[in-house]
Write a structure and sequence with these properties.
The chain is α/β, with parallel strands linked by helices. It has eight helices and ten strands. The strands form two sheets. A six-stranded parallel beta sheet has the order 1-10-7-4-2-3, sandwiched between helices. A four-stranded mixed beta sheet has the order 8-5-6-9, sandwiched between helices. The longest helix has 21 residues. The radius of gyration is 17 Å and the shape is globular.
């Protein structure tokens, strides 16, 4: 069974990578997270400043720990003990960092990225600002089209992120989006990258493992 699943993962991943490249993104398929980490670290200069987009996937890869250990300066608004003012300042620095690290909520087989944010700092940095953007996506986030991408966000990504962030939004009880209207709503900005933004260097790593949510 694992061989069959690996075949399917690789086939779908390579099809998605080819579509991303057709849409002018740099894209690479890595069967394992270890291979991806090695390639990503090789792309990032030791003296480079790093923006962290609050990604669970990036955390699973241990990239921030590796970068911190070798001396990179990291702008991470998710660190404990930060004030609201601290977080805002860090988010602004992420927009002008050397390398912005993040994931995506969904990627379509035809090579488009779909994301929903609460504040908008993540999608803003993906679109324009940092010298380089590296997006890491697990095989579980590949979907057929934009409709399926939006369904994935509402059924999986948004409720789980709400639970992770300890919000009081209804989806932490229902397990799916209810299109809530409260002040703690985290689904305020949805973007679709149909092609690479013309002034932004984006490299997408598709990994043949389930990562993030």
């Amino acid at each position: 069974m694992s061989e069959l699943k690996n075949w399917h993962n690789e086939t779908i991943a390579n099809k998605t990578v080819a579509a991303l490249m057709k849409n002018d993104f740099q894209a690479t398929y890595c069967p394992t997270r270890q291979e991806a980490v090695e390639q990503i670290l090789a792309l990032i200069p030791v003296e480079g400043t790093i923006g962290a987009g609050g990604s669970w996937t990036i955390g699973q890869l241990g990239l921030l720990d590796s970068l911190d250990a070798r001396g990179n300066i990291i702008f991470n608004h998710g660190l404990p003990g930060l004030t609201a003012e601290d977080k805002m300042e860090i988010r602004r620095k992420q927009l002008t960092c050397d390398v912005f690290l993040t994931s995506t909520n969904a990627v379509t087989i035809d090579g488009r990225l779909v994301n929903t944010d609460g504040v908008g700092n993540r999608v803003a940095a993906m679109i324009f600002g940092p010298k380089k953007v590296i997006i890491v996506v697990g095989i579980n986030k590949i979907v057929k089209d934009i409709v399926e991408a939006e369904k994935r966000i509402k059924l999986y990504a948004a409720p789980i992120n709400n639970k992770r962030l300890n919000t009081l939004n209804p989806c932490i009880r229902t397990g799916e989006c209810t299109d809530c209207q409260g002040p703690t709503r985290i689904c305020n900005v949805t973007t679709i990258l149909n092609k690479r933004p013309v002034l932004t260097d984006i490299h997408i790593f598709v990994i043949g493992e389930e990562l993030g949510f």
